[in-house]
């Protein structure tokens, strides 16, 4: 901390932020705020600064810009719920790592994205998906387009990737009536006034290899059947509390319907699509495709039988968990600092601390699960003489802790507009054009501030350079 405060640039930045907070929260001591901010300053990955970062020139630009500066845990959030003295004393006396952990877990558990289900509830959700996929015409529509025909209310456990099957075309817009989707196709789905057309005449997703299209479409029916059988096995053995039997059921269902070569083919598509939504925010594709999502669901179910991360957390939270028809169970606590001093504090802190320990075990589970999946694929590949060899394409579990770095907070377009001073409509327009990184979560578009900030800075630098060039001419 001393090194940071010795830096004149750091001192000015921290004093400015402390002054802003003291003005917003009368009674907060600026000198103490500077000290707290110096201790909590970090980079976009949540790593504390050993030294204050220096302004740098972006590639191809002469303009100096500062990298994003974060404060985590966040004293400004604590000040919204506690008195200035209480907030400052907490940040001065408590363990900051533990404080940050509890703050992050509160955000996660209250978001509706945490699959806070018991074992039985997990099985019930999967049964709901299986019933949906048995509706009349659902299979035919999925196999033809990759999109569902009827509405499936997604949950914290089952996202869009579980009801899609590798769509290759983007609808211009989608409407819903009486539980059924109506897909509207156009010659250019990125232009609002583009002429409408049939599904057959609609263009392919950008970046898809045309050589893979025919194989992908021909394999959808097999994948639909494999997914149905695997989901049946997952639900059955969740209730039977037998993780080994569950894995046998899932692997048998996949290997019976798909060759190792075909599974490698789908996993290759999944890996190539990572990050696709950042440039194409209107895409309904998820970061992982259907096969990776299915394998990850199987892993989650097995992990709940072995580690029981979410089930134990839900039990520990007890009546604090609220849900509307179990779709999005969550804890209705807006901030960790809001629960301090209440009758629920001890229960909530105990659940957060337990979740942290369980996630350490979960990390080891996912490493072993990933290795097991790839080992089974490699053995089957050798039996079949598959074209792709082990290591060229593999299943990646992509486990990450529920504790997100501060830059991973999802923001709405309105929140981005407020922070940046750019009109909300402009934010949406830039996202649609791919000029602003974004993610689609269900039917909503969300942003991560560090990515937006970097993109806006780059855009500003390009505009400055363009004006300079115009003046020279």
Q: What characteristics describe this protein?
A:
single chain; 473 residues; mainly alpha; 3 domains; 3-stranded antiparallel beta sheet; 19 helices; 10 strands; 7% strand; globular
Write the layout of secondary structure elements.
Blueprint lengths: L1 H5 L1 H17 L5 H11 E2 L13 E2 L6 E2 L4 E2 L3 H7 L2 H10 L2 H14 L9 H15 L4 H8 L27 E5 L2 E7 L9 E2 L12 H31 L2 H15 L2 H13 L3 H4 L10 H17 L2 H9 L18 H4 L5 H40 L25 E2 L1 H8 L3 H10 L5 E3 L2 E5 H24 L1
Antiparallel strand pairs: 1-4, 2-3, 5-6, 6-7, 8-10, 9-10
Helix pairs in contact: 2-3, 4-5, 6-16, 7-9, 8-9, 9-10, 9-13, 10-13, 11-16, 14-16, 17-18
Strands, count: 10
Helix content bin: 55-70%
Which H/E pattern describes the elements? HHHEEEEHHHHHEEEHHHHHHHHEHHEEH
- Low-confidence runs (pLDDT<50, min 5 residues)? 274-287
Mean pLDDT: 84
Radius of gyration: 25 Å
Shape category? globular
Q: How would you sum up the major sheet? A: 3 strands, antiparallel
Number of helices: 19
Number of domains: 3
Structural class: mainly alpha
State the strand order across the main sheet.
Answer: 5-6-7
Distance between the termini: 49 Å
Strand content: 5-15%
């Amino acid at each position: 901390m001393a090194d940071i405060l010795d830096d004149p640039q750091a001192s000015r930045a921290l004093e400015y932020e402390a002054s802003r907070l003291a003005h917003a929260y009368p009674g907060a001591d600026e000198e103490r705020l500077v000290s707290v901010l110096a201790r909590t300053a970090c980079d976009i990955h949540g790593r504390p600064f050993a030294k204050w970062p220096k302004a740098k020139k972006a590639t191809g630009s002469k303009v100096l810009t500062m990298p994003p500066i974060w404060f985590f845990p966040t004293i400004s959030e604590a000040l919204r719920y506690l008195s200035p003295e209480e907030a400052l004393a907490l940040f001065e006396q408590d363990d900051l790592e533990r404080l940050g952990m509890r703050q992050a877990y509160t955000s996660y558990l209250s978001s509706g994205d945490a699959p806070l289900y018991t074992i039985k509830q997990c099985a019930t959700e999967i049964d709901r998906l299986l019933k949906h996929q048995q509706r009349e015409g659902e299979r035919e529509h999925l196999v033809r387009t990759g999109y569902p025909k009827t509405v499936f209310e997604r949950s914290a456990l089952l996202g869009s990737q579980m009801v899609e099957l590798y769509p290759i075309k983007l609808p211009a817009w989608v409407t819903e009536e009486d539980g059924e989707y109506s897909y509207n196709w156009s010659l250019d789905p990125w232009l609002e006034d583009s002429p409408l057309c049939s599904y057959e005449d609609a263009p392919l997703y950008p970046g898809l290899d045309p050589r893979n299209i025919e194989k992908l479409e021909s394999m959808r029916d097999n994948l639909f059947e494999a997914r149905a059988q695997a989901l049946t096995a997952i639900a059955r053995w969740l209730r039977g509390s037998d993780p080994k039997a569950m894995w046998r059921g899932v692997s048998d269902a996949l290997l019976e319907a798909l060759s190792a070569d075909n599974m490698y083919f789908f996993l290759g598509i999944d890996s190539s699509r990572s990050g696709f939504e950042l440039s194409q925010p209107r895409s309904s594709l998820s970061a992982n495709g259907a096969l990776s999502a299915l394998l990850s669901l199987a892993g989650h179910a097995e992990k709940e039988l072995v580690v029981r991360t979410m089930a134990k957390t839900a039990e520990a939270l007890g009546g604090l968990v609220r849900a509307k028809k179990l779709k999005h169970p969550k804890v209705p606590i807006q901030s960790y600092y809001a629960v301090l001093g209440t009758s629920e504090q001890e229960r909530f802190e105990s659940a957060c601390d337990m979740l942290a320990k369980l996630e350490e075990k979960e990390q080891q589970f996912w490493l072993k699960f990933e290795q097991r999946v790839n080992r089974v694929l490699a053995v089957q590949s050798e039996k079949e003489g598959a074209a792709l060899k082990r290591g060229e394409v593999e299943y990646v579990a992509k486990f990450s802790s529920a504790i997100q770095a501060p830059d991973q907070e999802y923001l709405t377009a309105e929140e981005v507009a407020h922070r940046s001073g750019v009109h909300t409509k402009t934010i949406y327009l830039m996202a649609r054009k791919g000029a602003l990184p974004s993610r689609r979560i269900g039917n909503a578009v969300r942003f991560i501030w560090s990515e937006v900030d970097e993109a806006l800075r780059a855009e500003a630098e390009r505009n400055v350079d363009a004006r300079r060039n115009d003046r020279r001419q």
